[in-house]
# Entry
Amino acid sequence: MPYYSDDIIEEVRSRNDIVDVIGQYVHLTKKGSSYFGLCPFHNEKTGSFSVTPSKQMYYCFGCGKGGNVFTFLQEYENMTFSEAMQTLADRAGIQLPETEMTSAQKAKSAKRDKLFEINKEAATYFYKLLYSDHGTHALEYFQGRQLEPEIMNKFGLGYSDKYSNDLYKYLQAKGYSDDLLKDSGLVTIDEVKGGRDKFWNRAMFPIFDAHSKVIAFGGRVMGEGDPKYLNSPETDIFDKSRNLYGLHLARRTRADKFILCEGYMDVIALHQAGFDNAVASLGTALTSGHANLIKRFGKDVYLSYDSDGAGKKAALRAIPILKEAGITCKVINMEPYKDPDEFIKNLGAEEYQKRIDNAENSFMFTIRMDETKFNMSDPESKTAFYKKVATRIVEFPEELERNNYIEAVASKYNVGFENLRQMVNNIGVRQGMGSRIRDDEVEPARKLKSGVQKKISKEEGMKTSQRLMLTWLVEKPELYHIIKQYISPEDFTEGIYAQVAEILFQQFEESGMANPARIVSMFAGNDEESQVAEIFNTNINGIEGQHDWEKAIKETLIRIKENSLEQRKNAMDPNDLDAYNYIITTKKKIQEMKSLKVSVT
# Structure
């Protein structure tokens, strides 16, 4: 950060509305004065990721990640601060001044460049080996899968030699250090045995990021060996939960939909058949990170998972993740074949297109899978199935959408529309129609992240009080003129809170208003930025009405002052007359505060 002035940083930040920026990555729904969605930094079923326009900040009440628009891009896109700054400046049409990076930033940027370079070197080497005498059996494997030379070249397929240190020796000869090679994920270094390749005797699949840079590899063993498929470990440039195989090609298609598969060969086979919008997750189940990545380039997804039990379960897990990201989802039926590769080999691209055209609505697929768990010839079990369906329909927030699905289910299963709608309404009344984030899901001051009640220690209670006061000052700026008569930044005794309070009080004195997003920019490191975001997103339950608010503010104010006084007393020199006078004066002030009338709107 030192290489950009505070003013230019603030100009770039203020010209990029955080809701607009994050909304490109995360499906956000307005709830009150904030927006909520599924957190892109951890897996969750209930959206606890909040974005608040008035604060220009985001905060996840589940994992604790938070910050401003710069922090988000650094975390999500794995950018350096300067990269995030440049991206947002370009977005806002701002010309940045020529600057010099700090030595630490130069080192980080140089390392990333070297890792990209090493992966590119490895991909080129694997590609050449495939067409050498060493790669004959791997080439025969690809040809046996009916892959054409053009598609093999397009995906950069290759081969890793049968010698377990072949790539290590090649890259070492290129001048790359052991430390860099280890960090690339391509080599393990043993003090006794030396360097050993992560991949050897495998058919190789380079993994590209959305910008067509090689960031990792997947490898299928040739002959006997375990595991059959192996992927690169996560590195500084590779996060498997935020990258998709084939995306660098699929994003170029003019179609606004993606075909989502399970494996590398499925993607390659589909591209060869003309379906160049196919992608796959990288050896892991679909995550919200994948869904948010897809949302950046398309709005519809056709699931083309395996037709066996495991594939159906994977589809059922993926559907709600895609839906929460705001993606419309349909399911392609590939029976009697297992996967897209097998289907196209047997029936061809034209028949696969017909399956796309007749893809099943994801909700209807879900309840069809539910149906297999019930005995539809038994009245009691059949009723239980309809209750299950009704419970799922209740989750739709719009009445029109609920009625459309009630009609579709009633028609398919020959059940009365009114009967099913009444069942949906009854369940809705019991559960509360629609969905919202409950206070107990977003209240870190009251519960652990696991949701288990905990006894709050005195220290934790004081931290909560100080966070609350700082949050309220941001949300109710008129408070400042009341509380500044009684407390100062020095009364915030809990670590980083004192620093935040000092900056916040200064902002009020200089401009009469708070700018929490700018405060975040003053703290280096994502951990500190998240701590500041947490400070400005603290709430407690049970405050209703003007009287409760004013009482809570006054009691919190008194607790902070009493705690400050206690700490001053414990640290004072008994012979310090000034300290003694301070204690007497502060005690009188606390008595005054107890009769204080706080008035806020």
Notes: Residues 481 and 508 are 9 Å apart (CA to CA). The first helix runs from residue 6 to 14. Residues 433-456 have pLDDT under 50 and may be disordered. The chain is about 50% helix and 10% strand.
